[in-house]
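input
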Amino acid sequence: MVKKILANGEPCKKCQDVERRLKEANHWAKLDAIVIANENDPKSEGMELAQSYDIGVAPFFIVENEGEIKIYTLFFKFVNEVLKDRSSNSEANKELIENNSDLDFI
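output
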């Protein structure tokens, strides 16, 4: 997740809202990294990523899967396409183990 710090030093309100929603839905821990795009520092990692991918909004999400990179600028699309898939796989694995006593998590 790339979130923005405004030039006045305040966090972006939309970024705060998305962070709150991710935490409330227990998705926060599923993110691999949180990167800051600081408006006062064009060399900040988040600003460089935004420029590299030609993104003009925050927050945004970069997802790499098997060498393919996909950018999400819409929170709900990111949740539905990325995070829900991860949780449904986890639920499917739990069900598989519950139904097969000879299996266990590694």
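quick obs: The mean pLDDT is 86.
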